[in-house]
Amino acid sequence: MGAAKDLVRLLILVEVVVAIAGPGAAALSMDYYAMSCPFAEYIVRNVVSEAVMGDPTLAAGLLRLHFHDCFVQGCDASVLLDSTAGNTAEKDAPANKSLRGFEVIDKIKQMLEAQCPGVVSCADVLAFAARDAVLFAGGPYYGVPTGRRDGSRSVFSDTFTALPAPFLNASSLISLFATHGFNVQDMVALSGGHTLGVAHCAAFKTRLTTETATLDSGLGSSLAAACKSGGDSATATFDRTSTAFDGVYFKELQQRRGLLSSDQTLFESPETKQLVNMFAMNPGYFFFAFQQGMLKMGQIDLKEGDHGEVRKSCRVVNSGRW
Question: What is the pLDDT of residues 79-94, one digit of tens each?
Fold first, then answer.
């Protein structure tokens, strides 16, 4: 009886993935590695579990890696490629300088190559690792369809307009996310990924002086002091539970304690305020909407077949050159 229920849940999950993922979903499969590398997910989960247990702040880093990968050239692990003598890669762009978790991905890939050489793509590793990071931080579990291929292009200038800037207002965020097929709910739910992690003063210092009407005065004073003593590299957490995946982020927005302009705008804008209130009141619904958003994000501009490869090392293309 229990096995039958599990099968029904799996079939429902597959239907949901296909329904919400849109074009490109058919190229991926929930059992893509079932025969070629059946323990792939377990290997990823074990490494991520060990990493997050050792440093809970890595959950945010692994989630952010997947996001920054998919929004630039699609989910193709381009964010993992190292710069070369003739090319500055995405990871060295200003918006990506603070990315973390590369060493975790390296360890996962090394273990996968030892078990199943040339089978599991770095793009799929990022998708698995982000899901497991969220899970171990207390967030929802969701199935990850796989079969992505790794790309060969990684250019720092591609990040300039592809990634959401910390000063964007709700209308601009809605427009940017819409270019990738997201609706307003998806955008607000994915912004809720900021329930994990920190931002640097460089990203929010302008808010401290130009948006005082929408910034809690106590928080503003605390942030100003931190930036004054630590400079642009000083950090502050997005919410009070920065290593726990929960709905506190949205409650902070209600109290005008959003760290970035692009956070607080979600509460201030009539286009998104109702969703912030809903997610703050019902974290379970936030979890569901976040799952939907992540499944959609994992389908952005997929590379398939000859349009991609499975890298042996996530840091370099297989040919060893651009």
Answer: 999 999 999 999 999 9
